[in-house]
Amino acid sequence: xxxxxxxxxxxxxxxxxxxxxxxxxxxxxxxxxxxxxxxxxxxxxxxxxxxxxxxxxxxxxxxxxxxxxxxxxxxxxxxxxxxxxxxxxxxxxxxxxxxxxxxxxxxxxxxxxxxxxxxxxxxxxxxxxxxxxxxxxxxxxxxxxxxxxxxxxxxxxxxxxxxxxxxxxxxxxxxxxxxxxxxxxxxxxxxxxxxxxxxxxxxxxxxxxxxxxxxxxxxxxxxxxxxxxxxxxxxxxxxxxxxxxxxxxxxxxxxxxxxxxxxxxxxxxxxxxxxxxxxxxxxxxxxxxxxxxxxxx
Length: 297
Ligand SMILES: Nc1ncnc2c1ncn2[C@@H]1O[C@H](COP(=O)(O)OP(=O)(O)O)[C@@H](O)[C@H]1O
Ligand SMILES: [Mg+2]
Known about the structure:
The chain has helices at 14-24, 70-82, 93-97, 100-107, 123-133, 156-168, 224-236, 266-272, 276-296, and strands at 2-7, 27-32, 36-41, 44-50, 53-54, 60-64, 117-120, 137-145, 148-153, 173-177, 184-191, 194-201, 216-219, 241-249, 252-259. The chain is α+β, with helices and mostly antiparallel strands. The two termini are 18 Å apart. It has 3 domains: 2-89, Rossmann fold; 116-177, Dna Ligase, domain 1; 181-279, ATP-grasp fold, B domain (D-amino Acid Aminotransferase, Chain A, domain 1), CATH 3.30.470. The site of adenosine-5'-diphosphate has 22 residues, from β8, β10, β14 and β15.
């Protein structure tokens, strides 16, 4: 069986995924997204080509994509879903996870907890909404990542200059209730029905707990209800595999983000005590087998 990982950019963690993939698949190909072309022609379904190889005919393709080249990446997920390979997300899921407030829209009313969130184009509406939510509020760029693009305001006088700045940069306004927490959150890695959790603790006096902002991973055994919520959210968002960011609060957790390509460094596996890439590849392989069996019928 054939497996390909498609990435932007290449990360240190990829060789480990590739090694694990080699344990389950007969052939493993690592493909930079910049080497890919889509081919559309009469009387043939769309193809995803890399050099002379048609990836649409592979058994499984594992996209590890950042928000760069968003429109191109969105089409990749669509074509893969419409053709042969198993891919761990639905057609819309990548777009959804690349846009925090699209994620909030999909999750709202689905039975999982999210912080109250407001999406608007109007400065006046934003001020009113922030007062209604109650300060402090977070202000997020729709496609921020790694803790970049999130701000906090404790009153109107802090909010207004931030919103004016967003206007200069032609950014939509996304407000969210700030969930009080001690500078930490919980990352739940969902693989099918399985969940693996760890805590991320931010630097001293830092309220963003992202690893890329200096946060540290710590062991945590997330409560069952939180794990169930993460699995539910990933299903609503159309993912078999994803990373769900949850801020713990008195009334249970609040989901703030779903990540299509959660970090799976060796340190992540050490903290969790499980070889996460191995579990992922095992899962992807079993899904690819199911696909084959279905096609064989
Ligand atoms: N509503 C919120 N209340 C409190 N802290 C938040 C909230 N949303 C995000 N954070 C903090 O900011 C970090 C980054 O936010 P997140 O929405 O996950 O964006 P990113 O894509 O940058 O990781 C989170 O890990 C969390 O520590
Ligand atoms: Mg996050």
